[in-house]
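hey so i finally got around to running both of the ones u sent me last week. sorry it took forever, my laptop kept dying halfway thru and i had to restart like 3 times lol. anyway pasting them below in the order u listed, first the sequence line then the structure token line for each. didnt double check formatting much so if smth looks off just lmk and ill redo it

first one:
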Amino acid sequence: MVNFRAYIISMLYEGIELKEVNIMSKKLLSFMLALFLLLGSLSLAEGTISKEEIDKIVNTTTDPNLVESPVLKVAKQARESIVGIHNYQKSQYNYYNYRGDRLEPQDSEARVASGSGVVVSKYGHIITNYHVVDGASRLTVSVNGKEYPASLVASDPSLDLAVLYCHGLNLPAAQLGDSDKLQVGEYAIVIGNPLSANLERTVTAGFVSGLDREISDRVQDKYGRISTTKNKMIQVDAAINSGNSGGGMFNSLGQLMGIPSIKLDNSDSAGMMGFVRRNKH
């Protein structure tokens, strides 16, 4: 990303002639010229301004304490309760020697899925989506790039929810809100690990777009039986991507109101909507 301030400084100090700049630079300089003319600091005869005037324009500061947003406080507080969830599964491979004789099968383990989770107790209990942990032979929780062993203590495939336990996690528990009291139009602040672990605790914000949206899911139980279930979901327009599953959707009070689970992307209309499971059923 270009350092905009450094770019302006370099152009001003070099005293670029307007006739020598390209179209993009002309647009930028047009804006700058309008600003300088407004301030009465541009000498049209020379086409340059003094070093002191440049310093006054570019040497500015921003006080973060004066920046106001209902999302800021929630982001700072709730992000600490978000973790990554990793699903490892074993596969068995057959090997043969040079004579074609079959050797002893070998087990191989690989990470097959990753998602997000929310710490909900001071003891290390974490809520996430069931599809994030389904079929795992080993589960881990990641925080700041480090992974810790976790175990599955409860799950409900029909609701796509699961509870994990991670001993000694030592992270603050998110405060649960009452999702039955959600209102269309209030803030929906989503925090999770989208796309990769390199983007952990990403914050996106939008609004609650609708309530009690009936969504059908195909679920498979431990015996392999497949059935269709219907759940009433919260519709939000906050950005939700792969990896956000199991993370948290918070209201403007910082209360956990639901678990991001589904993203519907309509390429025909360039529209995107996310669906969040209520924290109460």
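and the second one:
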Amino acid sequence: MAPSLDYIKCPYCSADSSSIWASENGFNAVKCSFCGFIYVNPRPSQALIDSAVTTGIHTETTFEKSAFARRVPAKISFYRRVFSKLYSDLWSSAKPISWIDIGSGYGEVIEALSSLAPTGSCIEGVEPMQYKANYAISKGLKVHNTYLSSITRKYQFASSVHVFSHIPNFRSFLQDVVSILESKGEFYLETGNAADLLSNKEVPTELDLPDHLTFAGKKHLIGFLEEAGFEIVDIHEVRRDDLLNFLKNIVKKFLRRKVSLRLPYTSNHRALQIRARLLK
């Protein structure tokens, strides 16, 4: 039986004109003719998206696709360096903080933040996929196995690391973020800038459709955040097309996975690391 699909307008500007930007796993990612935002269209129905988010299994592809991924211990030291630099003003104080990582997966970001935070801080995560949440909990981490919309307490800080593309309605998601932040609370957002690229060939990894539903550019991310009441404190742009990524892609190509082989340090693709603060 064919999967249930929904045809949508551009999630950023609501325009209804687009062209195919890339195809993968039987799905098309289209680029808005007006604002350049990239999104899967048609995309799986909301019921299928919700099922994949909680179970980790995509049944709408031509083959059963898993979104379990794996725990990557190297992320802990990597994000410790990222947050140490981007929030250097925060760690110099001995005052405890409260922080929730949204879409916390196996908990690597929580571990990185916990190693930096002053004694007495509350560092938590929220992860709707039961398998990942249970793993993180088994490691002694405080993770809520639910959606962000179910969280009722307030935090000073929130983060979302490479979760953007999984979210079908980012405006609604940001409303939930705002609702759990204290006044003048801060939000860290990290995702790629695929919509800024001339071609999908510049993306240094698989697009992973339809697990990834949307792809933004720098202007879209700033636009979303400012519309939700945030001001931009800082933005770092980090290359992802290094030699290690190139070598990994050679292996993926050998395994017949859909990746582009491009010489290291020749792509305009960047991971955008954005620190934002509520104006009120």
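quick thing i noticed on the 2nd:
The mean pLDDT is 90.
anyway thats it, ttyl
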